[in-house]
Design brief:
33% of the residues lie in helices and 18% in strands. It is of the alpha+beta class. The chain has a four-stranded antiparallel beta sheet, with helices on both faces.
Length: 119
C-alpha cells in the first residue's frame, strides 16, 4: 500500500504533498526521505528553505536521515494511505520553478494564495 502512494522510492522522492483541509490546506515536503511540514511551529522556515534549495539546485544529497525523519515518514505514509482522496502529490521534477508549482494546486481554498508562491 505504501508503494501505491508514491511512484518512486521514498528515499529518492522529491515531492510536495498538498492536503485538503477543512479550513485550510496543509503541505508536506519530502526531499529524499527528509520530511518538512509547512508552518510546523517547532521548526521555523525549514519548509520554505528546503523548497527554495530544491529549485536552486542546492539540496544536500548526502545528508543522512534522522530518526525524526523516519518517524515522520511512517506516520505520514500511514495517514496518506487512509486519506488518499484528500491528497495531491506534486513531483518536483515535473516543475522548473516554484511559480510553476504554485499554479498546479488543485485544492482551491488556498491555491490562489499560493499561485504567487508565497510559501
Amino acid at each position: 500500500n505504501k508503494s501505491s502512494i508514491l511512484a518512486e522510492p521514498i528515499n529518492k522522492a522529491n515531492v510536495l504533498i498538498e492536503i485538503s483541509g477543512f479550513k485550510a490546506n496543509d503541505y508536506l515536503l519530502l526531499i529524499e526521505g527528509r520530511v518538512f511540514i509547512k508552518d510546523y511551529p517547532l521548526e521555523k522556515n525549514t519548509f520554505n528553505d528546503a523548497l527554495d534549495h530544491y529549485f536552486l539546485g542546492s539540496v544536500d544529497l548526502f545528508k543522512k536521515l534522522t530518526d525524526k525523519d523516519l518517524e515522520r515518514l511512517k506516520i505520514s505514509l500511514a495517514w496518506f494511505i487512509k486519506n488518499k482522496t484528500r491528497i495531491k502529490i506534486h513531483y518536483l521534477s515535473n516543475y522548473h520553478s516554484l511559480e510553476e508549482l504554485g499554479r498546479e494546486f488543485i485544492f482551491t481554498k488556498e491555491s490562489s494564495h499560493y499561485n504567487d508562491t508565497e510559501f
